[in-house]
Specification:
single chain, globular, disordered C terminus
Length: 365
């Protein structure tokens, strides 16, 4: 039997009986009790999962950030080397003159592929981080071990489906607003300057009307990545499952997810502060050494240490800022399935039939 047996779709209409009265405490083989979860269970369970499985979480997120940083650095270096001859011709022109069209075109020709590459890289790395949390939670709810290699393979195996859910959700939630803005700007360009004063009003109206719809759709499909990882479904099926699971609990899902994001941001910011202070201390000799007494090597060393501390602090803080909210969403997925499909019994049966193993089998197909 597969180690992930019990995570497949269950027929609805069989909710778990309420835990209350003098009933015994629900079993808790992992980070959460296998019963309908309260807000404290979800928030605390995500903290326990992060503490218990910090090695794969921190390792993979730091690796992903490192790959992204290297790609960004290489892309910026190539771009700077390519546009340097054209930069002065475009931005350093005599007063009253305009840069040549061929120089502007060459500059854009260098910048466009790099921007596209950076966007695709960020989307790919974001998909890896998003697929990591459900893979970890699958093991955490039953207290099973999760190694770095197993989680890395699991993330890659479900990455296409997770990216599909993120892309489809983004298009459905934000696409209409972007289309309206694009149409209005196109019309504004062709109609002349007489409607420029209407631009702020139009943007505000579209924002006020579109933001609630975008938020509603985002929350409704917020469990789709967890569905794609845990149940092995494609993007469209995962979004439909997420919509059914969130149905009847939109406000609860929104509130707990928002709380998880706030806590993740707060803890991440607190982690970044010591690195920022350390970088500021490294700048003190640079600030004090002014005039003829300033040593270029001291100035360079201070700036290098400052930038390194800021980058390192940002990377370490982002581990919690990126990972913790996804753990909260994954536990909300488990909670909704326990409430609506009695997932707890299936997981207990799976745990009894399949002993924990260090080796992590391939995910469901």
């Amino acid at each position: 039997m597969s180690q992930h047996a019990g995570w497949g779709q269950h027929h609805p209409g069989q909710p778990v009986p309420p835990w209350g009265g003098w009933a015994p405490r629900p079993p808790q083989p992992g980070v959460i009790p296998l019963a309908p979860l309260g807000t404290g269970d979800v928030i605390g369970g995500a903290f326990r999962a992060f503490r218990s499985y910090w090695k794969p979480l921190v390792g993979i997120i730091m690796l992903v950030q490192g790959i992204g940083f290297l790609l960004v650095a290489v892309a910026i270096g190539i771009t700077v080397a390519g546009i340097r001859p054209r930069f002065a011709a475009v931005f350093d022109v005599p007063s009253g003159e305009r840069p040549g069209g061929e120089d502007v075109a060459a500059l854009l020709l260098y910048l466009a592929p790099v921007v596209v590459l950076l966007v695709l890289t960020m989307v790919l790395l974001g998909g890896l981080i998003t697929s990591l949390a459900p893979a970890v939670i699958q093991e955490a709810v039953l207290g099973r071990p999760a190694t770095f290699g197993a989680m890395w393979r699991r993330c890659w195996s479900r990455l296409p489906s997770v990216l599909g859910t993120l892309l489809c959700t983004g298009l459905l939630a934000g696409g209409p607003m972007l289309v309206l803005y694009a149409l209005f700007f196109s019309w504004l360009v062709t109609s002349g300057d007489r409607w420029v004063t209407a631009l702020p009003v139009f943007m505000m109206i579209v924002f006020l009307v579109g933001m609630p719809v975008m938020l509603w759709l985002t929350v409704r499909f917020s469990l789709a990545p967890a569905v794609a990882v845990c149940e092995g479904l494609g993007p469209v099926e995962a979004m439909r499952r997420s919509s059914r699971l969130v149905s009847g609990g939109w406000w609860r899902t929104f509130g707990i997810a928002a709380l998880g994001n706030l806590l993740g941001a707060a803890v991440g910011y607190a982690v970044q502060l010591p690195f920022a202070f350390l970088g500021m201390f490294a700048l003190f000799p640079t600030v004090l050494a002014t005039g003829d007494a300033a040593d270029p090597s001291t100035l360079l060393f201070g700036m290098v240490v400052y930038v390194a501390c800021i980058l390192l602090g940002t990377a370490v803080g982002a581990v919690f800022q990126l990972g913790y909210p996804q753990l909260v969403l994954s536990l909300l997925y488990v909670d909704q399935r326990i409430r609506k499909e009695n997932l707890a019994e299936a997981l207990l049966a799976s745990a009894a039939a399949t002993p924990p193993a260090g080796a992590y089998p391939a995910g469901p197909r």
